[in-house]
Amino acid sequence: MQDSAKIVPKLIDGEHHIFRGVFKKYYLMLFNLSYQYLEDEDEAKEVVQEAYLKLWETKGSLKSNSNIQNYLFTIVKNNCLNRLKRKQLLLEHHEKIRWMELQYRYEGLNYIGHDYLEFDELKKKIEIAINNLPEHCQRVFKMSRFDERKNAEIAQELGVTVKTVEAHLTKALKILRKELKEYLPILTAISQFF
Q1: Under CATH, which number does the domain 112-193 receive?
Q2: 3-class DSSP state of 64
Q3: What is the mean pLDDT of each successive set of 10 residues along the chain, which is 194 residues long?
Q4: Which among 8, 63, 108, 155 is least surrounded, fewest beta carbons within 10 Å?
């Protein structure tokens, strides 16, 4: 394959064999880069295909001294970062909705008459289960669920990684599920949140 200075003018002219050569030369490197970010083979392939499509569509605006490798590398990197941001926002949105629904249902227990001893007992059990969580799990759980803090905010305040916060939340939810399993008939409406 020729160097970029010779390739770009031919690419600008729309020579298909040059484009195929560029595709073959950089595909594996771009796929590996994309896979490192996304950890999903199909998604990594999509990102690389999008990068090549963009190269073909914008070939007319390239400068003759453009570095094709850097150009494709930048497109792939930016597309991966954009996908990761969208995924994170979607996860945060779903988590917030799940928590809001749980909170409304939990608050709904307060409005049920005292004739329903099971609900009052469940509310107390939930409080006890939360208070019996390991110290770090309890703190992270309360910051996330009661203070409605994002994982990144919690991590920054506590001086830990977001992964550590996620691990504490996972552990807390696992413990709560186990502790409250005898109340499964009552929890059917809210079990998806534990």
Answers
A1: 1.10.10.10
A2: coil
A3: 66 81 92 90 94 88 83 92 84 70 61 54 80 90 87 92 90 82 57 43
A4: 63
